[in-house]
């Protein structure tokens, strides 16, 4: 049976005999465990278009063989390839726009005022929890840089994390093609914060100094040594199963300072997770100031 036929047969029935699907069921379970992307019967095209090429490149017998190799002690590179293939890397600078307006005109000013009034250390920590190839982080950094000119002596840092090692490597490099820079950036931002290099654009040092990037799986424990004032977790939990989504956001609340802010995707709503997730609207953006239960 062809790889395409294996996928279609498995996703069309819940009663396949163990091993009869060429490992498609094992692959689906492994991807869910590996990065939280749950493949229901509408996602067969993702397996065929993104994972089948890995099977062919590695000359695996079938999907079961791929899973067995990935689970082996020496399978880290294969696991990374699967994560990079199955996760969505669609992003752009200032995506959806309104969260960055809320950040600039409401959230950061309120946060600075709160820190000043309480005598807290002059520092702001922001976490972009599914940063993909870094455009969200650098968009936040542009907002911070504009504001930081009026905040001498403040310690401002953005942590960008993603489950995809390849995406994190791209974000760390900070180099983007003409097409990528053209998506979401106006001419002034490009001129102020990028330099033209090697038929593309390099993020300027004044932005990179705000940033740090790490590979991180949101389904695993968060190894925080401090709290974040603002967390962006946009358009990633929509791929998780309901219990995983609830776990991610409830654990995320524990990493946010009292009175801190949480941004999710424009189509996401968290009110079903409990009263601590009461939405607020600022600059046409829905955001949250969650409190631990």
UniProtKB/TrEMBL annotation:
<dbReference type="InterPro" id="IPR022642">
    <property type="entry name" value="CheR_C"/>
</dbReference>
<dbReference type="InterPro" id="IPR029063">
    <property type="entry name" value="SAM-dependent_MTases_sf"/>
</dbReference>
<dbReference type="InterPro" id="IPR000780">
    <property type="entry name" value="CheR_MeTrfase"/>
</dbReference>
<protein>
    <recommendedName>
        <fullName>protein-glutamate O-methyltransferase</fullName>
        <ecNumber>2.1.1.80</ecNumber>
    </recommendedName>
</protein>
<dbReference type="GO" id="GO:0008983">
    <property type="term" value="F:protein-glutamate O-methyltransferase activity"/>
</dbReference>
<dbReference type="InterPro" id="IPR050903">
    <property type="entry name" value="Bact_Chemotaxis_MeTrfase"/>
</dbReference>
<dbReference type="InterPro" id="IPR036804">
    <property type="entry name" value="CheR_N_sf"/>
</dbReference>
<feature type="domain" description="CheR-type methyltransferase">
    <location>
        <begin position="27"/>
        <end position="270"/>
    </location>
</feature>
<dbReference type="Pfam" id="PF03705">
    <property type="entry name" value="CheR_N"/>
</dbReference>
<dbReference type="InterPro" id="IPR022641">
    <property type="entry name" value="CheR_N"/>
</dbReference>
<keyword id="KW-0489">Methyltransferase</keyword>
<keyword id="KW-0808">Transferase</keyword>
<dbReference type="Pfam" id="PF01739">
    <property type="entry name" value="CheR"/>
</dbReference>
<keyword id="KW-0949">S-adenosyl-L-methionine</keyword>
<dbReference type="GO" id="GO:0032259">
    <property type="term" value="P:methylation"/>
</dbReference>
């Amino acid at each position: 049976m062809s790889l395409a036929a294996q996928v279609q047969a498995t996703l069309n029935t819940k009663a396949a005999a163990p091993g009869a699907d060429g490992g498609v069921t094992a692959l689906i379970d492994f991807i869910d465990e590996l990065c939280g992307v749950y493949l229901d019967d509408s996602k067969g095209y993702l397996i065929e278009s993104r994972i089948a090429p890995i099977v062919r490149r590695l000359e695996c017998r079938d999907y079961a063989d791929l899973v067995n190799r990935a689970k082996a002690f020496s399978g880290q590179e294969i696991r990374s390839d699967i994560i990079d293939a199955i996760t969505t890397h669609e992003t752009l600078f200032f995506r959806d726009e309104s969260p960055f307006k809320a950040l600039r005109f409401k959230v950061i000013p309120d946060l600075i005022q709160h820190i000043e009034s309480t005598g807290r250390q002059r520092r702001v920590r922001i976490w972009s929890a599914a940063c993909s190839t870094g455009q969200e982080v650098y968009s936040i950094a542009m907002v911070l840089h504009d504001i930081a000119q009026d905040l001498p002596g403040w310690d401002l840092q953005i942590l960008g994390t993603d489950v995809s090692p390849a995406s994190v490597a791209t974000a760390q490099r900070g180099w983007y093609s003409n097409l990528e820079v053209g998506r979401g950036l106006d001419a002034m931002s490009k001129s102020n914060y990028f330099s033209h290099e090697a038929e593309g654009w390099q993020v300027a040092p004044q932005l990179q100094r705000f940033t740090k990037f790490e590979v991180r799986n949101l389904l695993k424990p968060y190894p925080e040594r401090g709290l974040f004032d603002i967390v962006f977790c946009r358009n990633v939990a929509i791929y998780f199963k309901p219990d995983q989504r609830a776990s991610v956001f409830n654990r995320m609340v524990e990493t946010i300072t009292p009175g801190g802010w949480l941004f999710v995707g424009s189509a996401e709503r968290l009110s079903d997770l409990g009263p601590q997730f009461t939405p607020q609207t600022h600059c046409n953006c829905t955001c949250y100031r969650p409190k631990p239960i």
